[in-house]
């Protein structure tokens, strides 16, 4: 069990590291003006779909019944299409700092949905852990993007779209956990990215064909390859490994790693400096993740309740046996 949890933690850590690295790289690609946000999103979906279908040739063959294929469409809708589509559209309308702050709501939303859908308990440790992680992430975001409002004002419509994208991903984490547990990551993602591509291409076709791929710079091409193969294909290959082994709230807590990675890259590239405030923020994020992982699940609480009930009943049972033995001896 502990080994399974370790694999889950490593998978979520790796996926969120890749997403954290993708953030500044995607910004550089979009600032080049050669690719629109909608085109970049669809290139990610199409590229990942192709890579997952290629990977499926070498992976174990799995039969997916029609009912599960239909469920995979809805998993794709919430986990990829709405998540990425709404967030990209929201970022284009609102300020980057507002969009970043909204991403910190994912663990909170996930905890609430898990409480209703999976009957997962909202424990003190979960609440404290999420608060600590959110506080650390917010410190990093606000400290590192104090100039992000320049050229882009906050927009209610943009903020609502960003929040919709985050809610949809939280729904995916919780509602489709059992579906994800039934199939390999390759099988899951080849169908999910295929559905996502089908949904997005009609809306982004004009943006995609307008990209002059043969004349893109070598740097831009490498950045695109990383976004598609690393931050999309590889990260989504890791996500199901975490979903299968960890509770939804724990999985969502790793979302707080992304601003840490973005901040560390900015320092490494000389765009920012390391300060005690950033150090404190990083400590808070990791402390928050640790506290949430130590919170009790519904299964653990039910097992403890059953054990306590058995312990309470055992003295009564023992006394009854003694009474029976005593009455037998008298006879």
What does this structure look like?
Mean pLDDT is 83; it is low at 146-151. The chain has 14 helices and no strands. The protein is mainly alpha-helical and 331 residues long. α9 (185-209) runs antiparallel to α10 (218-245). The longest helix is centred in the C-terminal third of the chain and has 33 residues, at 298-330.
SSE layout:
Blueprint: H1 2-31, H2 37-58, H3 66-93, H4 96-103, H5 106-117, H6 124-144, H7 156-175, H8 177-180, H9 185-209, H10 218-245, H11 248-253, H12 257-268, H13 276-293, H14 298-330
Helix pairs in contact: 1-10, 1-12, 2-3, 2-9, 2-10, 3-7, 3-9, 4-7, 5-7, 6-12, 6-13, 9-10
Short description:
This protein is an all-alpha fold.
Number of helices: 14
Question: What is the CA-CA span between the terminal residues?
Answer: 52 Å
Give the helix level as a range of percent.
over 70%
Average pLDDT for all residues: 83
Q: Which regions contain 5 or more consecutive residues with pLDDT less than 50?
A: 146-151
Element order: H for helix, E for strand: HHHHHHHHHHHHHH
Largest sheet: none
Shape: globular
Strand content: under 5%
How many domains comprise the coordinates? 1
What is Rg?
24 Å
Count the beta strands.
0
* SS content category: mainly alpha
Primary descriptors:
81% helix; 331 residues; 0% strand; mainly alpha; globular
